[in-house]
Amino acid sequence: MPRESAAEPTEPTVSAVRPASALPPGRPAAQLLAELRNLRAADAPTRGGRTFAYVYDAGLPDVDELTEAAYGVFATVNGLDPTVFPSVAQLENDVVGAVSAILGVPGAQGSFTSGGTESILLAVKAARDHARSVRGVTRPQLVLPSTAHAAFHKAAHYLGLEPVVVPVDPLTFRADARAVANAITERTALAVASAPSYAHGVLDPVAEIAAAAEARGVLCHVDACIGGWFLPFLARAGLPIEPFGLSVPGVTSISVDLHKYGYAHKGASVVLYRDAELRRHQYFAYAGWPGYPVVNPTVQGTKSGGLLAQAWAVLHHLGHDGYTALARRVALAADQLLPGLRSLDGIRVLGDPAGSLIAFTVHSSAGTPDLGLVLHLADEMRERGWYLQPQLSCDGLPPNLHLTLTPATSDRVEPLLADLAESLTAARACEPVTVDPALAELAATLDPDTLTPEDVAGFLAFAGLDGAQGLPTRTAPVLALLDALPPRLKERMLTEFVGSLFRI
Predict the structure, then answer these.
(1) Which candidate, 241, 258, 204, 198, places its Cα nearest to that of 403?
(2) Which helix H or strand E contains 318, and what residues bound it?
(3) Spatial separation of the C-alpha atoms in residues 35 and 352, rounded to whole Å
């Protein structure tokens, strides 16, 4: 039977759907890949040992090749439903089991997640729901040291907990266990410790904090996102490491990122609980709609099985001996870097680094931390091809530069120290960083909640943060201004600036 004729459909104009540049005519694959590689050329290098933040490089090309190939095998597998894709459950049981064998206890249960933030979100949700159902807590609080990762504040914001922040020791930068204990109340759902803290790389007194929480019937989470798959192998290599896993009495959950010192590609993390009853509070289930029954162990629903497969592959490829050897390489780099830093005039290493993270500040001739020198030093090092992460002052803790050591940096310490010495001389020759007192005074009067977009855009433009132009070549003046702003105004300005980078 002939098909009935129909009017030609009206094609929407491209501009009615999205900007014309967003969806051009089709182009050859080779051309597109070349364009992507060209875009990457402007980024900080992720291999080669010159980027000391965000990047965790084993320095082993075969690991990169394996993770990329393993991801490809499982890229189209949907991790949403392990009853349809049973391989997902098998791989996850294997990965979580490997983490539990190192940091767990008999009966521990966990989940594979997309990264540390998701692992922390889930641990906070589990603690909130556990406190509600077991102890009847309706206005839950989250007790955490001031050095705990910002992801805990994000979790509290998303999940409706009140953060209770306690100070850390100003000399060691370790959490004050007594202050944490004193902050725990009947409303506390969760107490937090870091192993180690990201900002300064020091290990909190996990056993003391966990004991204080257990004495009050409160759960305790250890954020071992950055140290969980490094410190145990450092101990295996013969270095003394304080216990921090679930075997420590009172520790009820722990988060471990495998895309850090597990050397998997991002994102790959595990959140582990003492038992299945605790993990149950992390789950979301819903049957009150006409679609398929929903049970989500993690925040994500649909997710590629590729991330899980590549994490599984690299764990099995490196194994105990491989991770121990890599941890030893990082320790050797630290043993060379720390005395080298301390020998440089005016540099002070902060706290007692637990292994792979080092933070140092720069003193003025008066012997006090100098924000301008810290920021100029970061700029000078960046001009010489190194990325060291600037960290601003906070609650009396000094501004500093953060370094993340990896196996790939083990043969870069000597040139790094040479360039640091040269950069330090250049930084001292720079014009001092100053913030216009009138601008700082004005900023102190601004209410972040009532500022209009135009107000914020004007302030950012004055500060040199114009999203259309990107970051300035030297960031010291901009970061010095941000350092002078009240925290909530700083957050508003940073939010608007990042938003301006994503213009569509």
Answers:
(1) 198
(2) helix 305-342
(3) 45
Cα first-last separation, the chain: 48
Sheet holding 162-166, edge to edge: 109-113, 269-273, 253-257, 219-223, 188-194, 141-145, 162-166
For 272, other C-beta atoms within 10 Å of its C-beta total 30
Rounded average pLDDT over 286-310: 92
Predicted local distance difference test score (pLDDT) of residue 20: 47
**Is the torsion defined by CA of 108, 109, 115, 116 positive or negative?**
negative
Tokens 């997902």 identify what position?
88
For residues 332 and 340, the answer to whether their CB atoms sit within 8 Å is no
Q: Please give the helix or strand (H or E) that residue 359 lies within, else none.
A: strand 357-362
- On the question of pLDDT at 8 being above 50, the answer is no
Whole-angstrom Cα distance, residue 271 to residue 278? Answer: 11
* Rounded Cα distance, 498 and 481, in Å: 16
The CA–CA distances, whole Å, from 275 to 111, 243, 247 equal 12, 19, 12
Instruction: Name every residue whose Cβ is closer than 8 Å to that of residue 71 and which is 6 or more positions away in sequence.
Output: 265, 304, 306, 307, 309, 310
Q: What gap in Å lies between CA 347 and CA 360, rounded to an integer? A: 7
* Spatial CB neighbours of 161, under 8 Å, sequence gap ≥ 6: 124, 128, 140, 141, 142, 155, 189, 190
Give all strands (DSSP E) within 195-311, no chain letters: 219-223, 253-257, 269-273, 284-286, 294-296
Spatial separation of the C-alpha atoms in residues 373 and 364, rounded to whole Å: 8
SS3 324: helix
Cα 388 from chain centre:
15
CB atoms within 10 A of CB 372: 22
- Residues 458 and 248: their CA atoms lie apart, in Å, by 52
pLDDT in tens, 16-56: 444 545 677 888 999 989 989 988 888 877 787 788 788 89
C-alpha distances out from residue 55 to 44, 257, 264, 266, 421, Å? 10, 13, 11, 10, 24
Q: How do beta strands 253-257 and 269-273 pair?
A: antiparallel
C-alpha triplet 170, 177, 154: angle, nearest 5°: 80
DSSP 111-143: EEESSHHHHHHHHHHHHHHHHHHHH--SS-EEE
289 confidence band (pLDDT: 50, 70, 90): very high
The torsion angle over the Cα atoms of residues 161, 207, 170 and 117, rounded to 10 degrees, is: -40
Cβ neighbours around 41 below 10 Å, total: 7
Residues 196-207 have a mean pLDDT of 96
